[in-house]
C-alpha cells in the first residue's frame, strides 16, 4: 500500500472510530496491518499520535505544555500497577506522550517492544492507540461544541 492510500485509509479508520463504528474501524486497521510492513505500521502509529497530540493541545489549550519553554507532557497512573496489568494500554499512552513530547527515540523503542511482544499484544497495542486517539478526538469535539465539561 502506498503512503497516500495508507494515509487516506488511516484517517477513514480514525473517523469510523470517532463515530463509534467499531466494525468499520477494525476493518480499516486490519487492512492497514495486513498491507503494511513494520516501517509503514510505525508510520500509522506516528500518524495517530500526530492527531492525538493535536487533540491534547486543543483540549488543554493555554494549559498545554509548551515544548519551546521546555515543558513536557507527563503520564500519571491513577491506579498503581494499571499499566502492568494492561500492556497494550501502557503502549498507547506512553507512545502518545513520547510523541507529544517529541521524544522519537522513546516512541521508536516503545513501538519496537510492542512489535516484539508475544501473542496478540502488538495488534492490541495498535488498537489501543487508535481507541485512545479516537477518544481524544471525541472529547475535543464535545468540548468545542459545549457538550462536555
Topology record:
Blueprint: H1 3-19, H2 22-34, H3 38-60, H4 82-85, H5 87-100, H6 104-115, H7 121-144
Salient structural properties:
149 residues, mainly alpha, 7 helices, 72% helix, globular
How would you describe this protein?
By secondary structure, this protein is mainly alpha-helical. Helices cover 72% and strands 0% of the residues. The protein has helices at residues 3-19, 22-34, 38-60, 82-85, 87-100, 104-115, 121-144. Helix 1 crosses helix 3, helix 5 (87-100) packs antiparallel against helix 6 (104-115) and helix 5 (87-100) packs across helix 7. The longest helix has 24 residues, at 121-144.
Q: Care to count the β-strands?
A: 0
Percent of residues in β-strands: under 5%
Strand count, sense and closure of the main sheet? none
Gross morphology is globular
**Given the structure, what is the number of helices?**
7
Proportion of helical residues = over 70%
| Oligomeric category | single chain
Which regions are unreliable across 5 or more consecutive residues at pLDDT < 50? none
Whole-number mean pLDDT? 94
Radius of gyration: 15 Å
Sketch the topology as an H/E string, one letter per element: HHHHHHH
Distance between termini?
41 Å
Structural class: mainly alpha
Amino acid at each position: 500500500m502506498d503512503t497516500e492510500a495508507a494515509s487516506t485509509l488511516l484517517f477513514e479508520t480514525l473517523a469510523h472510530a470517532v463515530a463509534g463504528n467499531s466494525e468499520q474501524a477494525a476493518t480499516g486497521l486490519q487492512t492497514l496491518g495486513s498491507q503494511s510492513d513494520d516501517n509503514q505500521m510505525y508510520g500509522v502509529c506516528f500518524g495517530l499520535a500526530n492527531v492525538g497530540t493535536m487533540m491534547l493541545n486543543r483540549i488543554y489549550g493555554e494549559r498545554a505544555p509548551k515544548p519551546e519553554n521546555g515543558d513536557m507532557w507527563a503520564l500519571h497512573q491513577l491506579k498503581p500497577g494499571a499499566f502492568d496489568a494492561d500492556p497494550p494500554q501502557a503502549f498507547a499512552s506512553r507512545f502518545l506522550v513520547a510523541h507529544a513530547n517529541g521524544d522519537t527515540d522513546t516512541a521508536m523503542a516503545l513501538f519496537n517492544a510492542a512489535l516484539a511482544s508475544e501473542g496478540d499484544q502488538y495488534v492490541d497495542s495498535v488498537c489501543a492507540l487508535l481507541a485512545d486517539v479516537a477518544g481524544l478526538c471525541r472529547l475535543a469535539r464535545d468540548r468545542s461544541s459545549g457538550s462536555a465539561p
